[in-house]
């Protein structure tokens, strides 16, 4: 059985949500037809989609663009003013004026909730341009889930959601401390901080699911700690902000539920 903890409202809001409202759109010179919210990246994976123009703050809006000028660069602007450069996929049309594959554009985490527009314009002469109306919703708070029990020196399951970078198309880099940093690594110190027991990277949608190795209970060796890690009740602190190599990540701190450790 797993237990779940959510972030405190004050400082742990995720500015980059899991893309729970992915949108598959066809943007053509004659008009726009819209697919729907789907748990897939590629339009080819979608069957019987329903219309949905909703995306979360910091989320990725997925679309298929067609009908632009051939071999041109498509610029996407939020509300016609802010150029959106972060995302996944190509922004250059092929010889038929289409963006090949499926492209995702990142909605900045600082975008206000409510109605907005995305303006797609290529650099042809004359330029082809289309406007899509979207609705931006608040992002969920970061959460973590840890296993209810663990064994010293063995793998321990952890997962989380809502850990996404506010401006870059990547997940957060997350430091993990045991019992608020009470136990330090004695070898393999991470990021110059011995109290960081592990570091994990969330995926592009802000999710992670992995294992870490708990301290062995010894005061030496690969998984040794100072002081020695005892059996009993423990917790993990998850932190993001300063570790991301691209900088500018959202500072968050989430405390897990307690779990029991045996020998």
Rg measurement, Å:
22 Å
* Total strand segments: 23
From the N-terminal CA to the C-terminal CA, the straight-line distance is: 19 Å
Overall 3D geometry? elongated
Mean pLDDT, as a whole number? 80
Percentage of residues in strands: 35-45%
Largest sheet: 5 strands, mixed
Which structural class do the helices and strands define? mainly beta
Order of helices and strands: EEEEEEEEEEEEEEEEEEEEEEE
The helix count comes to 0
Helix content: under 10%
Low-confidence stretches: 1-51
Strand order of the largest sheet: 3-2-5-9-8
Brief digest:
By secondary structure, this protein is mainly beta. The protein is built from no helices and 23 strands.
Q: What does this protein look like?
A:
The protein has about 260 residues and is mainly β. The chain has no helices and 23 strands. The strands form 6 sheets. A 5-stranded mixed β-sheet has the order 3-2-5-9-8, with no helix packed on it. A 5-stranded mixed β-sheet has the order 4-11-10-6-7, with no helix packed on it. The chain is elongated and about 70 Å long. The relative contact order is 0.19.
């Amino acid at each position: 059985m797993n237990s779940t903890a959510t972030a405190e409202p004050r400082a742990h809001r995720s500015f980059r949500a899991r893309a729970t409202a992915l949108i598959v759109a066809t943007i053509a010179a004659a008009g726009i037809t819209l697919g729907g919210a789907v748990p897939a990246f590629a339009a080819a994976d979608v069957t019987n989609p329903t219309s949905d123009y909703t995306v979360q703050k910091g989320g990725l809006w997925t679309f298929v663009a067609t009908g632009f000028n051939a071999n041109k660069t498509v610029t996407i602007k939020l509300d016609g003013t802010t150029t959106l450069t972060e995302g996944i996929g190509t922004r250059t049309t092929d010889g038929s004026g289409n963006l090949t594959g499926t492209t995702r554009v990142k909605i900045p985490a600082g975008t206000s909730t409510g109605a907005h527009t995305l303006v797609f314009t290529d650099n042809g002469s004359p330029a082809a341009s289309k406007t899509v109306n979207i609705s931006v919703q608040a992002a969920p708070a970061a959460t973590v889930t840890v296993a209810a029990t663990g064994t010293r020196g063995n793998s321990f399951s952890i997962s989380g959601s809502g850990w996404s970078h506010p401006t870059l198309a990547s997940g957060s880099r997350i430091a993990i401390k045991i019992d608020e940093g009470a136990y330090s690594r004695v070898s393999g110190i991470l990021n110059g901080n011995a109290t960081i027991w592990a570091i994990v990277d969330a995926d592009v949608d802000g999710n992670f699911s992995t294992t870490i190795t708990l301290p062995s209970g010894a005061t030496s060796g690969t998984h040794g700690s100072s002081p020695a890690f005892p059996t009993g009740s423990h917790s993990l602190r998850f932190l993001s902000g300063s570790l991301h190599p691209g900088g500018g990540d959202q500072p968050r701190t989430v405390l897990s539920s307690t779990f029991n450790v045996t020998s």
